[in-house]
Amino acid sequence: MKHIINKISAVIVMGSMLFSSCTKDFTATNTDPNGTPTALPQQLMAPALVGTLGYNMLRNRNFNNELMQVTVDASDAEGKVFRYDYRATWADYLYNGLYSELTNFKDMYKVASQPLNYNKSYMGISVICQSWVYSILTDTYGDIPYFHSNEARDSAIYEPAFDAQKDIYMDIFNKLDSANTWLSAGTAINGGGDPVYGGVVANWRKFGNSLYLRLLLRVSGKSEMTEFCKAKIRQIVETTTYPIMASNAESAILRWTGVGPLTSPYIGVREQDFRSPGIASFFIDNLSSWNDPRIDIPTYGTSSINRWGIAPYSGSYQGIPSGYAPGENPVKKCYFYSNTSAVSLMTEPMTGMMMNYAEVKFILAEAAIRGWITGSAETYYNDGALNSITLWLPNYAVPIKDFLTAADIEWDDKLSFEDKMERIHKQKYYALFLTDMQQWFEYRRTGHPYLPKGAGLKNGGVMPARMTYPVYVQSTNPTNYKLAVARQGADQISTQVWWQKP
Prior knowledge:
Organism: Chitinophaga agri
Strand content: under 5%
Structural class: mainly alpha
Keywords: Lipoprotein
Mean pLDDT: 93
Number of helices: 17
Radius of gyration: 22 Å
Largest sheet: 2 strands, antiparallel
Number of strands: 6
Order of helices and strands: HHEHHHHHHEHEHEEEHHHHHHH
CATH architecture of the domain at 41-247: Alpha Horseshoe
Protein name: SusD/RagB family nutrient-binding outer membrane lipoprotein
InterPro entries: SusD-like_2 (IPR041662), TPR-like_helical_dom_sf (IPR011990)
CATH class of the domain at 41-247: Mainly Alpha
Helix content: 40-55%
Shape: globular
């Protein structure tokens, strides 16, 4: 825990002194460890990916998981995330951290686009990673500095404008188009500097186009975007111009080795703190009722621990209700084992989750039930459920239809549209386990899966729509902060971002 506190403190101090995206000078961050004035793309790539995933994973654990009823950090204190009650101080960590890593990704592009180091693949990978990071930032906060962020060092822009989310998304789409073109050339990169795909450029291209699908679906509910998104999704899925992930092996996952910088950030969490939150009833009850193999010990466990490192309670799987009212004091039951156990997410290589193949299948299932693409929604749904399991249990051999039927969650074409959405998104919820804030983003977009509402929920019992901006932005970039609030709405957790608004 001391390591995490130090890291967070350093980031906050850096943000306070350097105004985050507004005034950061990242010369030290971007200095080649060998002492050369400019780092090469292969030297910037791995540290930027590791750093970004560190911020994503810690906020997934203590923010997304609390909102989305994966865990409950039980307490009667105020400011508990699982009660939709969090302070403005939550905003700084992700905002500061992700903007700092954007500088590295931008420098990676800058160096790769210069004649001496010209490499279309590094340019494409940089643009994909920037799009990935910016999408998390804008879906968390709403309007953010985008077109002129991270330009204090090169262009002396110390107070960048907060750009409208629609404009951000449209530019991201343009950049992903460019990345697809650049990566189609297959220019080689240094595999040793690529901790996600080991230098397989074709897989980066598939990740970029799969990310494109995620983000198109994210904004497709806006009336002015629906036709554009439908057409682009259809083009990606039904032509060969935009290859997408085709197997679990092509999932974008930084697999932690435990050696040097590729050590999971969860190792920095104190063991007692990692075990402390109870697992929420919603998360564990579904897995238990389905007899899900990911929590099966006799058949798929290791050293009497299931694949996800969840501790049983009195010989069964039981959770704690989320959103309970102060004074109810429910008993903590199941929890995640810490790294003193043979199996633990603290030491799990696959927690560096960026995007997996199962998510792509569930995106296609939704597009199919909306009539936007051809193909069977049932097949996409079944493939998503299967690959969500086999990502963790590659040797799982039970026919997926048998599993789904036994669990009473098989596909049924007679269901209503909303019931089909619920079926898809309940499975997608588990596919998105450990993937930054994607469960929260998707719930805000769709209202699925249906989450039980505890009596202690704040914010009118409505899922928070955003994080507030870091408090220091009000004093370091006051004019543009006020313009953003005037356009978007009050700087509150209840203010919807652009793609949520009718």
